[in-house]
Design brief:
- By secondary structure, this protein is of the alpha+beta class.
- 42% of the residues lie in helices and 15% in strands.
- It has a 5-stranded mixed sheet with strand order 2-1-3-4-5, sandwiched between helices.
- Helix 8 packs parallel to helix 9.
- It is elongated.
Amino acid sequence: METFQYNRTIREMPLDDRPRERLEQLGPEALRDAELIAVLFRTGTKEKSAVGLAEDVLKKFENLRVLSQASIEEIQKVKGVGRVKSIELKAALELGKRLVKHQREPIKKIKKPADVAELLMNTYKDYETECFTCILLNIKNDVIKIEKISQGGIDGTAANPMDVFRLAVRISAPNIIITHNHPSGDPEPSTTDIEITKQLKEAGNIIGIQLLDHIIFGDGKYVSLKERGLF
């Protein structure tokens, strides 16, 4: 006998199992990721309910973090997910990212490496390539500006002292902290990271701008080269 999987539509589900009704009654915290996505999708296809479609999306992209990095075109490649659903999902994920940035007042003064991590960790976690950033500080170590120097790799060119210190000189920032990420998730500094840091420290000393630290971000963790005594 031929067997087949029967995918119920949301209307065929018991009332208590429907994502929208469950969200209304129990709150969004009670719903699985797939059910929350199904609320956005509203409808499924002839073969799959909105929940089943959402489960296919999560199966393809593994988790919400990977999904948030996918393009609209990549999301559309999931069978049954068209242009509109892809755009709506992408918009919802972007709102989630922006919400994280507004959960608490941004740190204005840098007293320790953990302050830098709180300031930039959420920004860095979405980069798929290495990004080099400079935090410009006043004499009291209040943040004046955060400037992206380069993206795509860290080497002698990406961390060129001229690029790192140009804005600091222009706005008379006496102190800077440099940061970059390791997309591999491992924040352990490489030999190149250490050499570049020493070069920038020496260059800053010549022009009177102090390099306070170099922070490397990984997957939910970071390393301070200053704390490690590496420069």
